[in-house]
Amino acid sequence: MNTKHLLRPAALLLPLVILAGCPSVGNVPQAGGDWHNMGEANNGNFMLAVDKNSIKRDGQLVTFRDRKIVVDMKEERFINVPPYKTAINNWEIHCGNKTFRLTASTLYDDTGKIISDEKYTAVDIRPMAIPPNSLTEEQRKIVCAH
């Protein structure tokens, strides 16, 4: 597998682990859905929301979408991903094992144009333990209670 494709998911996962509490930002791709604001991080430069309409449960495995918005692209360092304004990511969380993994990611520029659209298998990205007291843990509580 291409190293670039391995590093891109890791770059998308890092902000998710540190995010927490989000106001809304205008003029970003909504991609439909019922977006529940989750938090902000990186001195308020990242904002995250979960699409409650996307939550699907199959036993202990739950899939859902989230949306990450970069408030000021000039203030952000983009490592292993193209500079983007909005990321809409698909996730799997195993409620019993408390693990998560990225299954797909679509990145949009500041005009709403898609600049990257990737899908990941369980071989590409293995499930990882959900860190305690993280935004991912807050997401787990929401989606596993659904």
TrEMBL record:
Pfam families in UniProt: Adhesin_E
Q: Which residues span the membrane?
A: none
Q: Which UniProt keywords apply?
A: Signal
Q: Which residues form the Surface-adhesin protein E-like domain?
A: 35-145
Provide the leader sequence positions.
1-20
Query: What is the recorded name of this protein?
Result: Surface-adhesin protein E-like domain-containing protein
